[in-house]
Amino acid sequence: MTKKLAAEFIGTFTLVLLGCGSAVLAGFGVIGQDGIAWAFGLAIVAMAYGIGPVSGCHINPAVSFGAWTAGRMPTGEMLGYWIAQCLGAIVGAGVLFLIASGAPDYSLADGLGQNGYGLRDAVTNQGSPGDYSLMSGAIFEVVATFIFVVVILGVTQRSAAPQFAGLAIGLTLTAIHIVGIQVTGVSVNPARSLGPAIWVGLPALMQLWLFIAAPMLGAGLAGWAFRVRLLTADEG
Q: Is the dihedral of CA 236, 226, 176, 6 positive or negative?
């Protein structure tokens, strides 16, 4: 269990540092929205093959919740994963803040790649990158997380080809980011949202609830679909 928790910590740390780091350190003016999307996707691919054999590379409380709902994970292990994932995200965002602070024109008000909804505030930089409403953000996060977790649970079932699982999961996350960055900045991962919000402070923390509730709902629906064998491949 210690190895699994260490792997989840390192994996989530890496996802936040590289994914959010692509937005903060390079951003739209250098690599653009597609570049940010690929950074998140490639981080997942790397960690899937790097720590997947140890912990399954959930690196996302919603994924762990989906696995638990599907009956693939005991409650105690899920809770341990949640703690490791959230700590990894917070430390990853903290390291990103230390790196970004080395630039003379960077301020924490510029953000750490936190998620948001509604009209973007010019002072705090909090809100949707494209000024999308709460309703739009909620629908996107539920549906995108549902799709993401369906792919994860689908490619990791016994009849699937495990050697391609990491690639399929990473490409799915890339596509989700290409579509959704302008809506919420894309969470589909409560830990990824928590890490930057902790450092940015109150404006981001006030909107954090959506990026916990919506991904958990989407993941729960995906897990349920596998638990009732709606999306489980027939074997034998």
A: negative
